[in-house]
Amino acid sequence: MSRSRRVLAPYLLILPGGLWLLLFFVIPMVTMLSLSLQQGDVVSGYVFTGHWQTYVDAIGNYRTQLVRSLIYGAITTIILIVLAFPVAYWIAFYGGRRKPTYLFLLLLPFFVSFVLRTISWRYILTDEGMLLGPLKDAGLLPGSFNILGTPVAVIFGLVYNFLPFMVLPIYVALERIDPRVVEAARDLYADPPTAFRKVIFPLALPGVFAGVLMTFVPASSDYVNSAVLGSSSTTMIGQVIQSQYLTSSNYPTASALSFTLMAVLLVGVFAYARALGTEDVMKVAAR
Amino acid sequence: MRSRLTGGRVLHIYTWAIIVWLTLPVLIMMLFGFNDTPGRYNQTWEGFTFKWYGRVFALDELTQALVISLLVAVVTAVVAGALGTGIGFALGRYRFRGSGTVNLIMFATMSSPELVMGASLLTLFVSLGVGLGAVTITIAHIMFSISFVAVVVRARVLTLDRSVEEAAADLGANAWTTFWRITFPIILPAVMSGMLLAFALSIDDFVVSNFTAGTTTTFPLWIWGATRVGLPPQVNVMGTLIFLGGVLIAVATSVRSRPRKRSSA
User: Fold this and answer.
1) In chain B, residues 85-104 whose CB comes closer than 8 Å to chain A
2) 3-state secondary structure of A260
3) What class has domain B60-264?
4) Residue ranges per domain, chain B?
5) Do A220 and A65 meet the contact criterion of CB atoms below 8 Å apart?
6) Is the pTM of this model over 0.90?
7) A50: how many CB neighbours lie within 10 A of its CB?
8) What fold characterizes domain A52-285?
9) Residue range(s) occupied by CATH 1.10.3720.10 in chain A
10) How many CB pairs under 8 A join A and B?
11) For labelling alongside A281, which of B97, B175, B227, B233 has CA 20 to 30 A away?
């Protein structure tokens, strides 16, 4: 291989895929930003006017949904940390040779479409359905009791759908801990809770952060759970954006809203990437 | 460690409870594929039947949606497999100017909300006046799959033992022969699992497809559209078959690659 070919080799290898990402990821983002500052309509076309008012109006009109989405996302993420940590901990420290099996079992539901699983929960949780029906018949719950349509149902769905994305990064972080470090803590007379608090938990934190990143972003921007399990009082910003794009064809407003959402979430994402690097997330994603 | 045995047992039970909870809707879905319901209303148990397995392709629109999903997923796996392998190999093998930018863009595609990726592609297609359909869905799926393939391949290239390639060169093999006879077979399992991942991401995708499909329907889009009128049992049957197929492929590939798993983990 000649020298120039060796220098060019990585670029030639990256070119096709890189071009694809440039054309269909980077450029669309720029297009969306530009469209959010344009005025016009679908029929007569759009003109760039630098119309920032669209942002002011869009955020003003849909502030409730935007804030609600961030709150639902935050609650979901907190519940996920609490639910996922013990699972990751047990698999990492007690899983033994069965570790891959347990991880596989956690990912098993992913072989069924996300939409289908969420609808399945709707059938399970419906007012007179297989869960609430018998409980109501037995008089354990009042007849008017319902879960569907409430924020509880939406957050339940979000927690359900994103749980594995919290378990995996925490597991990866815990798995990396050298058992000798924990033993050293014990030798230095740390009791198990102290060893956990002072050694294991701090070492697991990068995994928790990676998990927060991998769940807060999709949970806050989700529109499937709220549409399937929620009601008009649980409308999330994702639903607003979806209907502005696909039903009202109100592209500038929809673009401004998606860009606002993206900006809010990306500030967090890039702060994360700067502080902790991109390796953890990519490692989990590649599993 | 011995003193935590009871704690370990509690966590063991807890882990299984979580696994059961995660799997519950899948089991319900499978069960209702055997429900002897008279019509489309498939939410209460009416008795056991195999009839829906015989009539699984009875709904033309649904069957067509499934075919489109499979076609899109196959093309996505092949194209994203090729493009992602190029990027993954370059990042794993070479040090070069600009690799940081490539990493950052990959990270961005993997962590951006799907909603925003779908929406931005829609604005691009609308601005260019491109008609939406199976082609735009496939373009979008390839876009979000490339990075995943690249990350999987890069991990394998990084752990590759260069001395094997040097041995081939010492034995007189040129760069081309070395690559195809030595390097490629070694990274092939990673390329295959990257392609499987791309296939799985594509066939399950709803959000990005929702924005880039126009009037075309994929399997998840058809389900979404039919939610309000009720899902026919055929959906449960297809879901069950896709589930079992996916599990079978995953188990088969993990058994085949097991001896290597330890070193790459």
Assistant:
1) 86-87, 89-91, 93-94, 96, 98-99, 102-104
2) helix
3) mainly alpha
4) 60-264
5) no
6) no
7) 9
8) MetI-like fold (1.10.3720)
9) 52-285
10) 252
11) B97
